[in-house]
Specification:
homodimer; 15 helices; 16 strands; elongated; 6-stranded parallel sheet; alpha/beta
Chain lengths: 424, 424
């Protein structure tokens, strides 16, 4: 059997996991997939790290051109992270006709169009199963299944760090800062956690997933993004009392009026399949016009789960004689004629109010004057002057809500607007 | 664009749904998949039914040879159900080089090897995404993803009828017979419910899924099958008290000692992702050596969800220039050297005992003498002479348990062994 030469750009956590799988399962893959995959080049500054994985130092290089110009390399798997130099390196590889496999959601969501254009020119393939939800085959599902369905919505828990933090806050009644520190100590959160906790990582993934799902480009600029750092244990507890679980959701809806895409902390009913996704697990929930509701669930990160997806793509690339590309105009902007909208949803409003008769009536009236009605109200009676008041509204737009809240905030009885959180 | 001619064998519920999708989405599929699918032949006795779907009666035939000999037919989708004449018809179509798409799990699990052999001869494709878990892409996942993973186990709720019945028994505290009648009235269960409630349907699906997952044939004869008709509302309630949910599970494990495959009512902890799969929904839970736990969830039946999977396969078949077949020796028996075993698991034992001091000690001693230890004991105190006694054992084999139970049954204090149910 002819050997298919693989180059790995970086052998850190996921690159190392990938090397491990390709080595341990070379015979297994040969037997069942009829392709013989061999790592023939590794781009890595840390030669000691490469050697510790059992990689022959003669195949380790620090110069991308040694890979680009090596005809034995047919597939390049990238694990560098960040935009540069990953983008430049992969463009070179694609131009040389080498298929590319990547887990790099930031670079992909920002430069997919460029990479795809280059791939098309040379006939190379571009594969990115590992960019979203680790080993769960969500990209393959969106590309090679559900071909007759119009996907109406995609809702995902696509970031393990924030789901770990929110689950722990909810289960243990702890505050955000405390749990973040624990997550950092356990290696579930980075020292600089911004990419995760502020929703950037989820935004990159949503752009990729929703573009495939809706078969039109959903650029990063079209996505409303909000992180979880303003969430308190009190908010989570009040939501719980009312039957809701808080998740950082990546949501995209394909409606008749346009596409709505957002990443934000969101309360969902406890009965929703996504409410039971705990800890660092991820899940993507899709609604198709024929298939109805489907959900894919699994580990969103880690050396081996992500490595599993990379290896799946490498096998796919090795067997895929005629790579397919996106069916939409893949540019850096939205396609002409596609509208992006602010969709309606419910809102959780957490106020601190003076415990006076009539305060609820006053607020209700103001909301009502903007067409906003309430689904639930929860007022904790206490022998204190200041009490929390929790309102859950029926569906409305954030614009209408902002207008109403401008007035509510001015009331003497309203001491503080503690938080406003989306409810789906 | 060249038209790809499709023939539908039967336009009942799912065949009708498929016709609807292919018609409604012809342009959509053309645009995004670059194939133009047209139904050019329909095999259907009930011409009035075909006409009511908008099918031109000139393309309706009652003779399979009119399809086999029609060169414009490239893909045949079968909706007849049962083994014959579906098997004979599809063998003819494959021999004529037409790719086959089917949802027929009974025929496929019994004659997959024959169909695949015929397909290989002519180079035709054989696709069956719709045979298991409706529109959820579980077959595609097992065939085109996770190529580097050794799947350790597959656990599925793959029959909507029984999951509907068990969910309703659990939520409403009703007895089996009552809920079965309701399910029949609602169309969730057939007038003759045997195929569903006795686990045949789940067994067919498990044979297909586990063969693909373990990359070796798991024939029907290797699967231990038990249905749900002996389950009482009391069993479900006792299980609930101890933190368990009852599901009809299709389970296959790939262990060092051999493969264990079974369909049976099973208690799982409430925290297990499958415990929250309610009503007629289905889900398949996989454990891979690298990917870890993943789960796919969705509607397992219905005209449009199943039609969605059929259309997905038709598109796939139309684009798939070089069909792939199973990587294992697909015969009607297990491959040589593959062992099938009876795996260990916990057991729920529901006894009716005389409320005397020492009865528990006596039973515990007998179980212990066979090496069986208890995880939980639940004895309902009542002012009655006869009381229920619930035992949950640690892992053991059904063989050891049977031996112990032979002795336990003989005790004067043990009036009845009400039920024994698997616990995972």
């Amino acid at each position: 059997m002819k050997i298919t030469g693989i180059a790995l750009l970086g052998v850190g956590v996921v690159g190392g996991g990938t090397y491990q799988i390709l080595t341990e399962k070379r015979e297994f893959i040969k037997k069942h997939q009829n392709v013989d995959l061999q790592v023939v080049r590794v781009l890595e500054k840390n030669v000691a790290r490469a050697k510790s994985l059992g990689i022959d130092e003669n195949i380790v290089t620090q110069n991308i051109d040694n890979i680009v110009n090596d005809d034995s390399v047919k597939i390049v798997a990238e694990f560098m992270g960040g935009v540069e130099p990953a983008r430049t390196f992969l463009l070179k590889c694609l131009a040389a006709g080498k298929s590319v496999v990547t887990a790099n959601k930031e670079m992909l969501s920002k430069h997919w169009h460029e990479l795809e254009a280059e791939a098309k020119k040379s006939g190379a393939g571009l594969y990115f199963e590992a960019s979203c939800v680790g080993g769960v085959p969500i990209i393959r599902t969106l590309k090679n299944s559900l071909q007759g369905d119009t996907i109406k919505s995609i809702t995902g828990i696509v970031n393990g760090t924030t789901n770990f933090i929110l689950t722990k806050m909810s289960d243990e009644g702890k505050d955000y800062d405390e749990v973040l520190k624990e997550a950092q100590a356990l290696g579930y959160a980075e020292a600089n956690p911004v990419a995760d906790v502020d929703g950037f990582d989820a935004m990159y993934k949503l752009s990729i997933l929703s573009s495939l799902a809706f078969r039109t480009k959903v650029p990063l600029t079209a996505i409303d993004r909000k992180g979880i750092s303003s969430i308190t244990k009190e908010d989570i507890a009040f939501g719980k009392d009312l039957g809701y679980t808080l998740k950082l959701l990546a949501i995209a809806k394909n409606t008749e009026k346009g596409i709505c895409a957002k990443v934000q902390p969101t309360f969902i009913p406890n009965s929703h399949p996504l409410a039971s996704i705990k800890g660092s697990f991820n899940a993507v929930f899709l609604v198709g016009d024929y298939v109805g509701d489907i959900m894919l669930y699994g580990r969103g990160a880690g050396a081996l789960p992500t490595g599993s997806a990379i290896v799946s793509d490498i096998v796919f690339a090795a067997k895929d004689k005629k790579p397919s590309y996106t069916s939409f105009k893949n540019t850096d902007k939205a396609e002409r004629g596609v509208k992006f909208i602010d969709d309606e949803n419910g809102f959780y409003i957490h106020l601190t109010v003076k415990d006076k008769i009539g305060v609820l009536a006053k607020i209700t009236k103001t909301l009502s004057s903007k067409g906003i009605s309430l689904k639930s109200v929860f007022q904790k009676s206490a022998d204190e002057e200041l009490v929390p008041l929790i309102l859950i509204t029926h569906k409305t737009t954030s614009k209408l809500l902002s207008k109403a809240m401008e007035e509510v905030e001015k009331f003497d009885e309203v001491v503080k607007v503690n938080n406003i959180i989306c409810v789906e």
